[in-house]
Design brief:
alpha/beta, eight-stranded parallel barrel, TIM Barrel, 258 residues, 46% helix, 10 helices
Amino acid sequence: MARGFALSAGVAPGVIRAAARTAESLGYDSFWVNYPAPTDGLASLAQAAAETARVTLGVGVVPLHAVGPDAIAAGVKATRLPVARLLLGVGSPNPGALGRVRDGIASLRAHLPARLYVAALGPRMCQLAGELADGVLLNWLTPEHAGRSAAWVREAAAAAHRPPPRLAAYVRVALGPDAARLVHAEGQRYASIPAYADHFARMGVSPSATAVVARDAAEIPDALARWERVLDDVVVRAVTVSDTIDDTLALVRAARPA
């Protein structure tokens, strides 16, 4: 089991640099940003790379319908990201998601030696990840559904006669008196996206049931342990009142690995 920390790629570069530096010093195994196009998540991740030497660097995930494999490879080279530390996540919405991800992974393997992760919500994308990816990045899911998703991934890997990919998930974590409100607002934003609406309906839960809402930092370790029992990597996806250095570092420290 390992722990990562994740921020939106759209926060200020100084916040990303400070969070990455602090996460590495506190023993986190990975540091992630997303890729909310048109914001360039690779450029944001390069800010973290410049401040760190050990922690692995994840982008979760580049949308293949908007940014093709050639452009992704060019972006990695242009930003001089350390490929040996890079976890390169890709994903795609429907229609055509499975074929686009399959073709994208094949093309990226020819361009880059980075470890390739696939964003997966449903069983078919989990199975595709098990068949061909180095890792799978799950999102907005309960510990129970994480276990089901892990089984889909591992069964597909076994059928393909290959080792199972590494199992990672973003887990939203909010801290303090506004935690419930912040998670609810974030969850409602995702629930307005059809693929996520289907995902929540498949699990039969509200978005908030997939997150950690903590009034006190002492509540976070036991809460995260529920996901850590079934996954290889739990990535704390920060949900804060504001994207300031102080608010962000407070959460980095509160959720630090034991």
